[in-house]
Structures are given as structure tokens and as C-alpha cells.
Amino acid sequence: MMRLNLDEDIKPLSEFRANVTTCIRQTRKTRRPLVITHHGKSAAVLLGVSEYEELMQKMEVLEDIRLAESQLGQSKGVGHESALKSVLAKAAL
């Protein structure tokens, strides 16, 4: 996902309402999120579907890493040799 361009990617709610189609086109074309403000404060973010899916995949990987680190910290890990034997045994089936 691309970083925000502060000159182009922040719109007040009134402008967003008046130009929804244009805002969606911009988000698809630039692949950047669009921040929508309400009363001068950030209120929502418009994000393209592919960028959203990419973000969710990254979040899932990070959550898996966090869980693995937690399990390793609790001595619930499996050694390399043991894991390799288990994978090879399953592959031989």
C-alpha cells in the first residue's frame, strides 16, 4: 500500500459526498488510502479492495508470528529435527 499524499488524500466529508465516484477512482488508480475528515478531524479511511486484502494478509502473518513467539516463550516450541521428521513422515504417506 502506498503512503498518503497529504495534498491529495485527505478530503472533508462534504467533498467526499459530492464526489464519491471520483474519490473511488482516485483510490483505485493511486492505490493510496483516502482519509475522510469530519469537522476537521479524521473520521474514516477509504481503501481499495486489493489494498485491504493485502493489509489483512499482513495482519494474519503478524498475528501468527506473535502467537508463535508467545508459544516459544512458554516452551511450547518443537525443535528443528523433530519438526523435520514429522513433515517428512507425513510427506511419505
Topology:
Layout: E1 10-12, H1 13-18, H2 20-30, E2 34-38, E3 41-46, H3 49-73, H4 80-91
Parallel strand pairs: 1-2
Antiparallel strand pairs: 2-3
Give the gist of this structure.
The chain is α+β, with helices and mostly antiparallel strands. 58% of the residues lie in helices and 15% in strands.
Q: Widest sheet: strand order?
A: 1-2-3
**How much beta, percentage-wise?**
15-25%
Q: Which whole number gives the mean pLDDT?
A: 94
Helix content: 55-70%
The termini sit apart by 41 Å
Structural class computed from helices and strand pairing: alpha+beta
The total of helices stands at 4
Number of folding domains? 2
Largest beta sheet, briefly? 3 strands, mixed
Radius of gyration: 22 Å
Low-confidence stretches: none
Total DSSP E strands: 3
Order of helices and strands: EHHEEHH
Highlighted features:
93 residues; alpha+beta; YefM-like fold; 2 domains; 3 strands; elongated
Account of the protein in words:
With 93 residues, this protein is α+β, with helices and mostly antiparallel strands. The chain has two domains: 10-47, YefM-like fold; 50-91. It has helices at 13-18, 20-30, 49-73, 80-91; strands at 10-12, 34-38, 41-46. The mean pLDDT is 94.
